[in-house]
Amino acid sequence: MQAHRRKVLLHGSALLAGSLLPLSSALAADPIKLGSLLDTSGNFDAYGKAMDMATDLAIDQINAAGGLAGRPVTKVGYDTQSNMALYTKFAQQLARQDKVDVVIGGILSASREAIRPLLNRQKLLYVYTPLYEGGVCDANTFLTGTTPAQQAEVLVPYAMKQWGKKAYILAADYNYGQYMATWFQKFLKDNGGSAVGVEFFPLDVADFNSSIAKIQQAKPDFVISALVGGAHLSFYRQWAAAGMKSRIPMASTTLGVGNEHRALTAAEGNGILVAYNYSPELKTPANAAFLDAWSKKFAGNTKVIHELAVFHYQGIQLWAEGVRRAGNVRHDDVAKAMAGGVSIDGPSGKVQVDGQTHHVTLDVHVIEIQDQKLNVKQSFAQRPPRETQAVCDLRKTPNASVQHEIKL
């Protein structure tokens, strides 16, 4: 395979042991292989690069603490280049040639659904860490990001109380955006509101002038966005340039998860509401320790940290807790241990696996973007993945492997 077609990131166990740990027979054993699939180039590299850094930090910390089950952890990683076809190709490589013990990766929901069936057939444990649209019920998969009932269900009513009951919905045209647009409409209706317009955009669309004109005509009280990726960032710039930002306020479930608020000017981003599990502004000992560790490893470059990077770090640490509890990396033992309710005190607070759904319970904060910072306005402690709990019980259906299209 040509070098420019993939990037293989393999940390040798001897290097890790030598640079991070005293030389010991305990970590001279064969390494545990963590398979990583992330877009570190292409349209979604703003997400993937920091997630890859989070992977390296988590592995370093795990190994510095003695590894897992007396073995070091090593990463076998591929750059999927923001290309869905490469997810399938490299997932097969990880399973069949590299023979990794777990796969922790994927960014878009489309990438998750490209590899989840393959990993199930291989009986290779899969951890998917980003926020997503909910509904996956899969005994082989653990999903450690937020779902609509954790995120949008607090953001929509908060925005309605601030601004009014009529919203215009913008979303990326793939499964995440399509599902989220429906969830937005449900949460609007639940709180006595409605959507006065819904539009979907392919991931490569960067011209939103006609849509801005439609929004002006519809006269909503606010706009709610589930736009995704570098091209869609153009909307926020065009919205501000058209003079709309001071006229119609905005909320989003995606702006800022990849540090997009840092790419916008303060004038373009100020006042936008989001709802996330993590903000660098959280004043907790665990977050302070995380920021310090990141700073030491990456030469002080903490500004690249974002929600998806923290989700990824926390997902790896939850898997590590599962291995510790199991005492080995055998698939069934680790899955059982994780489903038993492992938890961590992560940078965002307590995160605990929900055994019924293989999702997590965690804190969520309504946040206002101000001067390129994520300032917490209101916090909601330990929210469960209620929408997925309504359709999934892996204790009763332990062989399930499906994504439910949740009826609203």
Secondary-structure blueprint:
Elements lengths: L7 E3 L2 H8 L11 E7 L6 H20 L8 E7 L4 H15 L3 E3 L4 H13 L4 E3 L7 E3 L2 E3 L8 H12 L2 E7 L2 H16 L3 E8 L7 H10 L3 E5 L2 H13 L8 E3 L7 H4 L2 H4 L3 E4 L8 H13 L9 H20 L4 H9 L3 E4 L2 E6 L4 E12 L2 E11 L2 H4 L11 E3 L5
Parallel strand pairs: 2-3, 2-4, 4-5, 5-7, 8-9, 8-10, 10-11, 11-12
Antiparallel strand pairs: 1-3, 6-17, 12-15, 13-14, 14-15, 15-16
Instruction: Assign the CATH class of the largest domain.
Output: Alpha Beta
Whole-Å distance between the termini? Answer: 46 Å
Number of helices: 14
Gyration radius over CA: 21 Å
Q: Tell me what the CATH architecture of the largest domain is.
A: 3-Layer(aba) Sandwich
**Number of distinct beta strands:** 17
Describe the protein's architecture and organization.
This protein has 14 helices and 17 strands. By secondary structure, it is an alpha/beta fold. It folds into 2 domains: 248 residues, Rossmann fold (3-Layer(aba) Sandwich); 101 residues, Rossmann fold. A hairpin with a 2-residue loop joins strand 13 and strand 14. Helix 2 packs parallel to helix 12 and helix 12 crosses helix 13. It is globular and about 65 Å long.
